[in-house]
């Protein structure tokens, strides 16, 4: 799994927060984008208004306040329409204040990027990221997401309903996809709590999870 830096709130994002608190207007998180462009260290991330090298876009499935200083935004990126594999170097979170236009709210850069594989009928995969965004007075903000994105996580859960058996395997072993039994979870014991098998779920310590079927 990849490793990502802390989310950087843009100037537009900070202005949005200030206005939301002052005018009691909700913030709606509208989309998340992935980019294959690795921004150089000297880039003014806070001054950014859009991403370069955008590859995928997704509607967040959830946004919530987790503390008085932190917001969490959840988004999924699948490889259903990815023709060529790529590295997820940068992720952008977009939002809009009630009555205003959509703007780039926060940017997340990779230390070690995840690699999104090309689409495959045999092994579809997806990354689910839980973005933790530090914001002053977060507990005074009302946040929401576009309702068309809320079915995403449930769609994944529905894909798992046909599993009925569990087999535990050592962390240094693997079972080829063609040799795996139907309706079976293969649980791989690892130091990072990775669950693998007929569907393979890799839990990222800092970001979210990767699902490989």
Question: Can you give a write-up of this model?
Answer:
The structure is a single chain. The protein is mainly beta and 213 residues long. The protein contains 2 helices and 14 strands. Residues 190-213 have low confidence and may be disordered.
Keywords:
single chain; 213 residues; mainly beta; 7-stranded mixed β-sheet; 43% strand; elongated
SSE order and pairing:
Layout: E1 3-4, E2 8-9, H1 11-23, E3 27-35, E4 54-58, E5 62-67, E6 70-78, E7 86-97, E8 103-116, E9 125-134, E10 143-145, H2 152-159, E11 165-169, E12 184-188, E13 200-203, E14 208-212
Parallel strand pairs: 3-10, 11-12
Antiparallel strand pairs: 1-8, 2-8, 3-4, 3-7, 5-6, 6-9, 7-8, 9-14, 13-14
For the termini, the CA-CA separation is 16 Å
Instruction: Describe the oligomeric state of these chains in a short phrase.
Output: single chain
The proportion of residues in beta strands is 35-45%
State the helicity in percent bands.
under 10%
The biggest beta sheet reads: 7 strands, mixed
Number of helical regions: 2
Compute the CA-based radius of gyration.
Answer: 18 Å
Structural class: mainly beta
Q: How are helices and strands ordered from N to C?
A: EEHEEEEEEEEHEEEE
For the residues shown, what is the average pLDDT? 80
Estimate the global geometry from the Cα principal axes: elongated
Low-confidence stretches: 190-213
Number of strands: 14
């Amino acid at each position: 799994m990849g490793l990502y830096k802390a989310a950087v709130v843009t100037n537009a994002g900070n202005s949005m927060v200030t206005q939301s608190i002052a005018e009691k207007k909700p913030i709606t998180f509208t989309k998340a984008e992935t980019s294959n462009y690795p921004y150089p260290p000297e880039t003014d991330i806070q001054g950014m208004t859009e991403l370069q090298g955008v590859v995928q876009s997704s509607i967040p499935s959830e946004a919530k306040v987790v503390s008085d200083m932190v917001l969490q935004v959840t988004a999924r990126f699948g490889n259903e329409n990815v023709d060529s594999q790529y590295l997820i170097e940068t992720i952008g979170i977009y939002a809009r204040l009630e009555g205003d236009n959509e703007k780039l709210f926060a940017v997340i850069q990779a230390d070690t990027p995840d690699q999104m594989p090309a689409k495959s009928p045999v092994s579809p995969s997806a990354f689910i990221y839980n973005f933790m965004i530090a914001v002053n007075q977060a507990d005074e903000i009302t946040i929401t997401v576009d309702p068309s994105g809320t079915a995403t996580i449930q769609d994944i859960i529905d894909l798992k309903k046909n599993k009925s058996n569990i087999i535990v395997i050592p962390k240094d072993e693997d079972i080829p996809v063609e040799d795996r039994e139907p309706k079976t979870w293969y649980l791989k014991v690892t130091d990072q709590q990775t669950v693998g098998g007929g569907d393979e779920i890799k839990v990222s310590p800092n970001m979210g999870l990767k699902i490989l079927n």
